[in-house]
Records
---
Amino acid sequence: MLDAAALAARGEPHGTIVVAEEQTGGIGRHGHSWHSPGSGLYMSMILRLSTPPDTLPILTMALGLAVQRAVDDLAGVSCDIRWPNDVMLNEKKLSGIIVQSAERGALIAGIGVNVNQTSFPEDLRETATSLRIETGREYAKDDLLNRISAESLRYSRIPKNEILRQFAEHSTWVKGKAVEVDGAIRGVTAGIDENGFLLVATATGTERIIAGGVRPL
């Protein structure tokens, strides 16, 4: 993402993409690390959109829908989206998305997809997966890159209310899911609000989750 941010500062246009064969310092939300061997797809896209900063959660959700659509179409699978930025396959993490602000009004969307990995470190085996593990097939990363790029540009232009509607439709995590948030909040998901924040019904009321790691109970 640093290379993409440097290009954005130089004035490179909307839709410019930087692709890494491998990452040694891949990051996710809240500074979490991202296991990034050479068998995955790691891309950063410059977005120049006329949207206010408070719509970043909606953009993250839009990109999740874009990745879900691209992967489903390519591999013939049915991915889920865990609010707000994880694309899941068979209840394991397949892809992560992060959006950060850059200079000159740009946004940088970082997207990582586990494509052809055949194994993961021991601490990730229960929570992460790849397309190859799930389908038994190897995939051309360029094909997936082209699909994700096209879908990301398309979804980034879809109106906010439509993104909220589609996310609620395509994510099983939005409503009726028993979850824990950062080990502190436990309850059942009760939808998303007009800003894209997750609502969780707890024993003491409804919590509005602005950020945090959501995991099943």
---
Amino acid sequence: MRDPWPALSYPDFAATQHLLHMVLQAVGKLKLKEPFEPQWGEVPLWLSSRGLATGPISYSGGAYEVTVDLISHQVGCATSWGSSGHCDLAPMSVAEFVEQLFDILRKAGVNVSINLKPQEVPNAIPFDEDAQPRPYDTILVNAWWRILLSTQRVMQSSADASRARHSLFA
């Protein structure tokens, strides 16, 4: 079993963090009902056994889902009509990633658009204009995700314990 709380130095992670953050913003925006409204409360990405996922997104009488696999370092799209595709997460620009993301969506029969401006980021560069090559360190990204999983486990056990205490007094 891997260390559930791996070391993660922010100075080491910072360079990779920008690309990962923009990847997750672009994927997350696929869930917005109104693409130009940055109201994120109802559109989280869900932790999964391999990374993060949108969950099913209604589309054209069916659904599609986008997964960000932080073990194999791929972003995939699967549809309820059987189409699928993926692209690798690797050193690249944000613009290259977004182009690949929309390419796999189109190939799967999903034609959607998003607001290409990152939200709540200082000096935001639209995804399609962020052409600077960015590093992607698979070891650090995987460590970040395992810390998220461990944090979720701690928060869930705390919530379960709180519910149990309250039910004793109900």
